[in-house]
Structure formats: structure tokens, C-alpha cells
Amino acid sequence: MSLEEIRKDFPILNEKVNNKPLVYLDNAATTQKPIQVIDAMMNYYLHLNSNVHRGVHTLSQKATNEFELARKTVQEFISAKEQEEIIFTRGTTESINLVASSFCEKFLNQGDEIIISELEHHSNIVPWQLAKEKHKFKIKVLPFKDNGELDLEVFKTLLNSKTKLVSVSHVSNALGTINPVKEIIELAHKQGVPVLIDGAQGVPHFKIDVQDLDCDFYVFSGHKMYAPMGIGVLYGKREYLDIMPPYHGGGEMIKEVSFEGTTFNDLPYKFEAGTPSVSDVLGLKAAIDYMNEIGFDFIEKHEEFLMEYTTKRLLEIEDLKIYGTSKHKAGGISFNLKDVHPFDVGTLLDQLGIAIRTGHHCAQTVMQHYGIVGTARVSFGIYNTKEEIDYFIESLKKVKTMLS
Ligand code: C6P
Predict the structure, then answer these.
(1) pLDDT < 70: residue spans in the chain
(2) Which of 179, 196, 201, 207 is the most exposed place for a label (fewest CB within 10 A)?
């Protein structure tokens, strides 16, 4: 598929914003949706709408089959061993909360420790802090170096017999750093410690193989990979999911209920209480089919080009600082113009039709590291073009002149 063909699949790219063609560079916040995803969701409501796993009638059975086919598609997409290891959630945030609640209930006690990193999204900090209040464990923080890379030597010193879990992002949403998750997992496993990877910014950009990574949990959101909002995935190894207690109680997650007690359903349903968002699950399947059709060879190569080209062009601009200068980056670039508030940059670029994100990106500990209030961030999707980057750079130069 050519870039031109890909762009035609995204109707929103024809929109005008402030009378200018939309240049959408806020993909780390959420990506746009191709017509194939929109159609899949509409098709469900037009032709299949019914509850899943509950009815003997034809529509319910058809919807259930499509729903479970979507689970299989996710399993294959991330190369999980079993379909039952794929739990549908509302997104990365809910997936991490599920593990923080359920894993900690089972495994964490007073005096235990978990390790997270300094460059996590709030979704990979706050759920652990909430669980810590209840179970009285300690949170150890793996710092990053000024170039945005995690320090593995420090990591080795943090791991000890009290460590019960490591939870780190695959790719930093604020700096774009690709973390050395394979090494982190290997080091943790040597001490018998399981690892959760927050893949919110990994899955959209490169092929994930959870068995090859050997991570114990991998979580991501559909909406950052061309699927709808409100759907996400928790992958977990069966050995953990089987013995972790349920997160939410309700329908679907039970085998038998009486007032004397309740027995819980098998995986994955034990963690899927209540009626799921079926249309979103089918949208996620359509998004995966779409990414598979384009292929990760194209996605990785194209996005690498966008990263390199944009970095090179940004560095043409005087008094511009890029935050996160690791060699291994993906997804997006954070920067600031000297003495200019990122909010002003974002607002003026918006006047020119360009959507970027400004602020702390829900990663305040990253901003604290650099002593800044926030950054401007451009982030890429499969439909972005070199011409859009050129327009963005020329516009940024204009904005700089206006503000200085
Ligand atoms: N980052 C961004 O603009 P949810 O909201 O549950 O889909 O994803 C949360 C999340 C967790 N981890 C990482 C690494 C993320 O980047 C995000 C979402 C968006 O950077 C919105 S704050």
C-alpha cells in the first residue's frame, strides 16, 4: 500500500482546521481511525448488535464468534501463547490498575518492593501508589539519564530479594526513548521477578512478540493504534492470571453465584466483568487487520524516516532544545523554544492547522527531571508525510519569529 492510498483510508485527514488542511501530529495522544475500523463498528450496530456469551439466539452467537475471533487476532498480533491470556480492558490505564489491584492483593506485603522508572506515564505510577497505601510495600524509582535513557547499572542495584515486580514503559510518551525492556526483563527474571511492560507507545510502532520478550504482563490501548477509544488489552502469562484474584465483580466473571459464596469463571472471563464494549473490540480487530495489511516493515521504516527527518529539521532552528536524545527513539519528539511557553507554540501552530500536544504529557516526573513545566511534542502515525513535516517546520519558524 502506498502512503497516498493509506491517507485515503483516513477520512478525517481531509478536514480543514482554521481554514488550513489538517496536519495531525498528535498521534501519541490518539491516532486517527481508518474507514475500515469505522465500518467494522458500524457494521456491528447495523447487523449484529446483541450481547455476547449470553444468548442462544443467532445474533448473539454471531456477535460472540466475532468477539472471540477478535481475541484470537490480538493473540496472534502480539504472539501470545494462548487466547485466554488476552483480557479486554478499557485501555492501558485500566490494564495497569487491574494488575496493580489484583497482583498486589496476591503477592505484595509489608516490606516488599516494586520498581518503576522515572519516565513513566502517570498511569504507571499512580495505580502503584494506590496499591502501596493498602499493602504497605515500597516503590523504588529507576532514574533516567539526561539523554532520556534508563540506567541499567542502577537497575541492577535496585533489584533485590524484596523486589516483587518491575513495571516500565516500552517507549516513553514524553521523550520517545525506546527502553531496553528485553535486558530489563532478563535481569529481573534472573532474580525471579516478573515484569509488566506498558506498551501504550510501543504497539503502534513496531512488532511486539510477548513470548520473545518473555514479559509477564504487556498492556496497551487500542486508540493509539488506529482502533477506537475505550478498548485496550492486558496480556498476562497464564501462570499469574490463573492465581490472581478477580478485579471487578459482576456478570460474566462468575461460574456460580449464591448468597453463601461465588465461584469465579475461567480465563479470560474472570477479568471481564459486565457487558463488554463489543463494537470497540471489533474495531480493534479491524485496526489490527489494517496494520497487518500495511505491514510492520513499512510502518517501522516510514516512522523511522519521519523521526530522523523531523529531528534533523528541528535542529536547524536556533534556540530549540530537544528533550530525549537517545539513539533509540520512536513515536515522537519533545522540544522547547528558548524562553517560549510550549502552550503558545501549540496554540499558534493550531492556527495554521497543525495539531501537536503541549504540556507535561501526563509525565510530570519527566518534566521535574529537567526542571521545566512542559514541552511541545510532535508524534507520528503511518499517514504522516515529509511534506507535512516541512510545513510544520516552516510554521514553527514563523511561530518563533512571532514570539521572539
Ligand atoms: N498517553 C499521551 O498523549 P490510556 O489513556 O489508558 O489510553 O493510556 C495511558 C498511557 C499509558 N502509558 C503511556 C506510555 C501513555 O503514553 C499513555 C497515554 C497519551 O502521551 C495521553 S496522556
Answers:
(1) none
(2) 207
